[in-house]
Amino acid sequence: MDMYLVEAIVNGVLLGGVLALLALGLNLIFGVIDVVWIAYADIVMCGMYLVYWLYVGLGWPLPLACVCAIVGLAAFGMLVHLFIIEPILGSAPINQLLATGGLLFFLQSFATLLFGTDFRNIGVRLPVIELGDIYISYARLLAFAMALIGAVALYFFLKRTFIGTAIRAIAQDRDIIGLMGADQRRIYLITSMIGGALAGLAACLLALQYDVHPFIGNTFGPLIFMICVLGGLGDMIGGFIAAFVIAQIISIGGYYANTELSYVLAFTFFIVLMFVRPRGILSR
Amino acid sequence: MTARQALLAGGLGIVMVLTFFAPPYFMHLVIQILLWGFVYTAWSMMGRFGFVSLGHGAFMGVGAYVPALLWNYYGLTPWLGIPLGVALAVLLAVVIGYPCFRLKVIGHYFALVTLALSQVVLLSITAARDITGGSLGLTPKAAGFSWYALQFPDKRYFYVIALMLWLGGLAIWRSIDRGIGRQVLDAISEDEEAAAAVGIDVMREKLRVTVISAALTALGGAIFGQYLMYLNPETVSGIAVSLQIVFAAIVGGMYAMLGPTVGALLTISLNESLRIAFGTNFIGAANTIYGILLILCIIFMPRGIVGVLERIGVRRVRSEAVAAE
Q1: Read out DSSP for B271-292?
Q2: Contact predicate A122/A52, CB 8 Å
Q3: What is the pTM of this model?
Q4: Pairing assessment for the beta strands A134-137 and A128-131 based on DSSP bridges
Q5: Is the CB of residue B141 less than 8 Å away from at least one CB of chain A?
Q6: Alpha-carbon distance B110 to nearest alpha carbon in chain A (angstroms)
Q7: Looking at the complex, does the CB of residue B241 fall below 8 Å from at least one CB of chain A?
Q8: ipTM of this predicted complex?
Q9: What is the residue-level pLDDT of chain B in tens, covering all 325 positions?
Q10: Is there a contact between B62 and B121 (Cβ–Cβ < 8 Å)?
Q11: What distances in angstroms separate CA A283 from CA A231, A233, A270, B116, one per listed residue?
Q12: Residues B191/B195/B198/B203 CA torsion (nearest 10 deg)
């Protein structure tokens, strides 16, 4: 079998891990609050700049910078919910999507104001693992592992804790939850906080393998929305599978044609599947 | 009320005639405002009924690229190329719209499907870089002053074209408003099931307004390409353009006929004045302000600037009526 094809498939799996991790937080917010944070990838971008600034600019140790980015974005997630989503929670969902679109403009241009349009790199080069003739990026492997750990942790949090159960309940029926003795407002805030923290985690891992620039969100943003919708609203397992399917299309498509065409293929696949299975790939 | 409208129309007419003799830079701004105003108006024809499309960048890109490519490679006049581009955009709108409306893909799902469409067109143009020049952009072959090539070095020609296009867009908006279509579409945007129950062909009505909107957007893109004589996938297609269209229309007010134009006026003059004030030192300044404005707008005045003005106008008329009694 063609060695390059194998490498493409392996890299596809690893890219799937990165995408799954990125989609995790968005999917949670999407599923629970029924809001699309269209600026989600740009919030991740902010996290990457935070890591860059703390590590390169202030010379903090990398793990500390990462922890700060996660905590910082968790707080930011709460602020987004408090100031942007909550005031218009009652209006049509599309308005909330558009309001976070304003946030997207703001974050991208604010990052441009602060850092300029240069590509920044934190300068940490993790080794590349050689397996026979296949090269695997260690940073991607790390992201893949973290995505798995993150997903499992989130799964147990949602299944085993009271607040997790409340979050799942609210996703099923948002009108009745008040009668069950759970505070809807608090649950939304916590969900947004977790979503922000997951964006922070993704930012740390992306900062290890990509250069930061103000428009990096445009690269991942559209992909992770597709993944969330493909997986089915708030369906974590479906989202995981969708991430790997999309990543394989991009990776193998890139091997046979070129990168742009593989993305075209991925988006077309999304549009077609939306019509075949509007409720997600795992729906019956 | 009619006297006031006549006064407004008369004032606007005088401004338009005066612009004809304005310096080129000023005229360039006015042409941009009119063309973008036209595209924003086209988007709002769907948007105001709750069909929020993030795919209009795709229609604009197709409309701009098809005539330019046909001209460059086959020497086909834009007089034929533009209708072909518009037809292709309409086909795209039907291919996406039909299954979406059939399967009741609405709200933010519709937004995300059309968003994917924007990306498909953007990336296809970029991928076909041997033909389209990719992200380096495409320049239609210059023909000097030519009616055949629809190229006029003199901005005044494009001013008149843009003005006519814009007025045409408003006329179409008016005709949708006047006909029974308006009530039908309002009913659909309130409740699709109920609209279908009273005998409205929901599919056909939604598709009709989508096709009109896509065709006008493609036309706007085509004229934009002819005017600027330079196309870049990032500036005429893709998510960035789609979002730009949506947001300017919302800020201006997508429910009123002149709202989208006010949006174009506001965003373009904001951009220009910030560019003049700060130069290129603060590249992001305009969009930073714009982003905040947008969030505030959606939260506090979802009907946009014109919507707020209209409400104030209505209140004043009412208080005048009370005073008269």
Answers
A1: HHHHHHHHTTTTTTHHHHHHHH
A2: yes
A3: 0.89
A4: antiparallel
A5: no
A6: 10
A7: no
A8: 0.86
A9: 577 778 878 887 887 777 777 788 888 999 999 999 999 999 999 988 888 899 999 999 999 999 999 999 998 899 999 999 999 999 999 999 998 888 888 878 888 899 999 999 999 998 888 888 888 888 888 888 888 888 888 888 899 999 999 999 999 999 888 877 778 888 888 788 888 888 788 888 889 999 999 999 999 999 999 999 899 888 888 888 888 898 889 888 888 889 999 999 988 888 888 778 776 666 677 778 888 888 888 888 888 888 888 888 777 777 776 666 5
A10: yes
A11: 9, 10, 15, 21
A12: -150
Backbone φ and ψ of B64, nearest 5°: -80, -40
Q: Which of A69, A103, A70 is nearest to A84 (CA)?
A: A103
Kindly state the tokens that stand for B115: 């968003």
- Which amino acid, residue A216? I
- Report the C-alpha gap between B22 and A177 in whole angstroms: 63
DSSP B17-48: HHHTTS-HHHHHHHHHHHHHHHHHHHHHHHHT
Phi/psi for A267 (5° steps) reads -70, -35
Tokens of residue B185, six digits = 């579409």
Task: Identify the closest residue of chain B to A35 by CA–CA distance.
Answer: B108
Q: Report how far residue B92's alpha carbon sits from residue B71's, in angstroms, rounded to the nearest whole number.
A: 21
A276 touches chain B (CB under 8 A): no
Give residue B280's identity as a one-letter amino acid code.
Answer: T
